[in-house]
């Protein structure tokens, strides 16, 4: 009889949560979980989060596809360009073409996202609960994440989210986050925030405190096991709001926060 390694077991834990695990694989997984305490603990944690999500969320409204919206904009812009070429003299058409190159093309290449965040890499490694949805579905690169979407890193592939403000986030495996506008809730796991090209501030909320930066690069590891969140400031400065006090940390510094009893973050 074949046996599973830990990687195979983790994959099947997620398949089981999605209701996609075959009977044969279920037997293999249960056997592995009986013999591997680490995987058993991962399974328990994910099952708890899954149960909390299912209990706390209701009716669904799926987001519209980013690519459909972008294609519509491209088609409209092309029609506009044809109309100009027909009706204006050559010199003006040239000027219009220059305008298109300088103004319209950059807008097409970087359409204003229909949602606060878009998965720009690692779509296969993320699972998504739409706002108020009870069932997760596999993510996709290019997918829009609406406000209140819960995203869950499930694979080893690097996951990158880009926010409408230009903030870029790397999510670690097993990270569980909820999307906000210019903010994100980190329930568990690791993420790295790069605000180098972002307009305006960005905030990461954890059960232990809040981390806000503008133009900064920082990472946050939130560990339910250790009951702590750890911030590392990689560039710029980050304001920490915890236990009712605010302080600003410079580049190169780090801090570990203990639980803040006044902060309650519900899924
Ligand atoms: Zn294992």
- N-to-C SSE string, H for helix and E for strand: HHHHHEEEEEEEEEEEEEEEE
| Oligomeric state of the chains in view | single chain
CATH structural fold name of the largest domain: Jelly Rolls
The distinct ligands, each listed once, are: zinc ion
Question: How many helix segments?
Answer: 5
Instruction: List unreliable stretches of 5+ residues.
Output: 56-78
- In total, the number of strands is 16
Number of domains: 3
Percent helix, as a range, is 25-40%
**Rg, please?**
22 Å
Features of the shown structure:
267 residues; alpha+beta; Jelly Rolls; 3 domains; 16-stranded mixed beta sheet; binds zinc ion
Write the SSE topology.
Elements: H1 6-17, H2 23-35, H3 37-56, H4 66-87, H5 90-109, E1 117-121, E2 126-129, E3 137-138, E4 144-145, E5 150-153, E6 159-163, E7 168-171, E8 176-179, E9 183-194, E10 202-206, E11 209-213, E12 217-223, E13 228-235, E14 238-242, E15 245-249, E16 254-257
Parallel strand pairs: 9-10
Antiparallel strand pairs: 1-4, 1-6, 2-3, 2-5, 5-8, 6-7, 7-9, 8-9, 9-12, 10-11, 11-14, 12-13, 13-16, 14-15
Helix pairs in contact: 1-2, 1-3, 2-3, 4-5
The structure holds zinc ion.
